[in-house]
Please model this.
Amino acid sequence: MEHLSIVTTGGTIDKIYFDDKSDYQIGAPQIGDILQAFNVQFRFDVIPLLRKDSLHIDDADRELIRQRIAALPTRHVLVTHGTDSMIASARVLATIADKVIVLTGALNPARFVGSDAVFNIGCAVAAVQTLPEGVYVAMNGRIWDPAKVRKNVAANRFEALAAD
Model:
């Protein structure tokens, strides 16, 4: 991988909490600082596209994300995204050819001690370098096909869809 484009859309990974009432806002993307701290040996750029909780990402936002990624000159794209609607966005991105696109996020903000953000980012970076063209979700130590996964809100994890 020569170069990685990282598109950020907000979500829990970039949330900043202000008080015990859980008031928050989506802060600046954390992924660039995380990758620099770990001295990664590839070039990357961070493209902050949205700063939204994924519950507020709508079809127009998904189309904006799709258009922006389709227009990128790079083949490898990592997308940070809120987990609640990550799968819906991944399914829209599946219309893009000739790229490896991996979506990841966090169930706890990257700024929190013990957050899953760094682990998920690491899995996503490995996935985007090794997988064939297509769209994938990297969460909970697994790489998922967006057509075969769901977020289990009660268990706070991603899991395979039940076979019909």
